Amino acid sequence: MRVGCPKEIKNHEYRVGLTPGSVREYVAHGHEVLVETGAGAGIGADDNAYRAAGATIAKTAADVFAKSDMIVKVKEPQPNEWVQLRDGQILYTYLHLAPDPEQTKGLLASGVTAVAYETVTDERGGLPLLAPMSEVAGRLSIQAGATALQKANGGRGVLLGGVPGVLPGKVTVLGGGVVGLHAAKMAAGLGADVTIIDRSIPRLRQLDDIFGGRVHTRYSTVEALEEECFSADIVVGAVLIPGAAAPKLVTREMLSGMKKGSVLVDVAIDQGGCFETSHATTHADPTYEVDGVIHYCVANMPGAVPVTSAHALNNATLHHGLQLADKGLKALVDDHHLRNGLNVHKGKITNRAVAEALGYEMVEPKAVLAA
Ligand SMILES: NC(=O)C1=CN([C@@H]2O[C@H](COP(=O)(O)OP(=O)(O)OC[C@H]3O[C@@H](n4cnc5c(N)ncnc54)[C@H](O)[C@@H]3O)[C@@H](O)[C@H]2O)C=CC1
Ligand SMILES: CC(=O)C(=O)O
Ligand SMILES: [Mg+2]
């Protein structure tokens, strides 16, 4: 199969779908790989590094889209990318369709077979292709929040670790999954007072064991949310219902109870965000203020640290990517975890949470693949 990798075009997105190391693996499996010129510049991999790995360099993205059987990307296709997709082609990337009706329409109209990294599952009930970027975004959320908390940046001017004789800042993490765990690790490492809220008691037990009492855990109720958000300097939004639009845990009304100059970091913004007042921002202009509360809502946070992120992402996507290249649609038939990643196929929505969020009929992936 010919596998194509265009340069990412989202605002300040420097990751790349295929590193030179991944290209070598596809080539070793007998595939041709077409990489857009400059695609790896953000991770310090020039065209010669890709040529040495066995890729052919394409002059334009249009060339990559037109000539490839499968497109491997990082971020969801942008409007001028989705019009270049076609029936019979596989798209393998993050999609985050539930909060994005326009992209969904574009993918449906194209006829493409779209496999979303964020809904591929594993045997432990995890989301293995989302996890590495959740690790990155979780860790970054505290750097971003701590920066926004500085007075010159509009924050209330609190140092997260405090100093001897002065109490530390307070960080509340909503959702103790992968993002939440890594946010809590960073915040605790800086010396902050950290509380994680989750609705899963087994998960709260695990977190309590991991942190050995260093971090507080609370079951998710409106009362707990209010108390922990009203007293926080930074609130990290990290809840997820796979495939679905994020639940709005912090309402517009609740903002008025928060401290002026406190910071909301809505990592869940790629699924629509878990604060009612969130809207997606970019690395170029990451924050805005509502009722004196700073909002940071960048939907591609890991794009800020592409050298780390692109390699972590490729580690996670390579195995299933090779299966798709080796077997085509049969890879989806053979592996139900990969099939859980199928969101759109030949004009049909094949993910239940996406269909419910956007009001489409859901067609079973097995049924569309057999047709
Ligand atoms: N903005 C960005 O650049 C990035 C965003 N993300 C996003 O971050 C979000 C979180 O991802 P992960 O941590 O990997 O998910 P996860 O599935 O590991 O964790 C989600 C947690 O939320 C909890 N939860 C769900 N509903 C809840 C509720 N009502 N109250 C309290 N807890 C609740 C679940 O029990 C679970 O522990 C996702 O939307 C993901 O796409 C991930 C990476 C980068
Ligand atoms: C998961 C995601 O949205 C990202 O890595 O950009
Ligand atoms: Mg701004």
TrEMBL record:
Transmembrane segments: none
Enzyme Commission number(s): 1.4.1.1
Domain Alanine dehydrogenase/pyridine nucleotide transhydrogenase NAD(H)-binding: 149-297
Pfam families xref list: AlaDh_PNT_C (PF01262), AlaDh_PNT_N (PF05222)
Domain of life: Bacteria
Family annotation (SUPFAM superfamilies): Formate/glycerate dehydrogenase catalytic domain-like (SSF52283), NAD(P)-binding Rossmann-fold domains (SSF51735)
GO MF: alanine dehydrogenase activity
Catalytic activity: L-alanine + NAD(+) + H2O = pyruvate + NH4(+) + NADH + H(+)
The entry's keywords: NAD, Oxidoreductase
Matches recorded under InterPro entries: Ala_DH, Ala_DH/PNT_CS2, AlaDH/PNT_N, AlaDH/PNT_NAD(H)-bd, NAD(P)-bd_dom_sf
Domain Alanine dehydrogenase/pyridine nucleotide transhydrogenase N-terminal, chain residue ranges per copy: 4-137
NCBIfam families in alphabetical order: alaDH
Family listed: Belongs to the AlaDH/PNT family.
The protein's name in its UniProt record: Alanine dehydrogenase
Organism: Mesorhizobium shonense
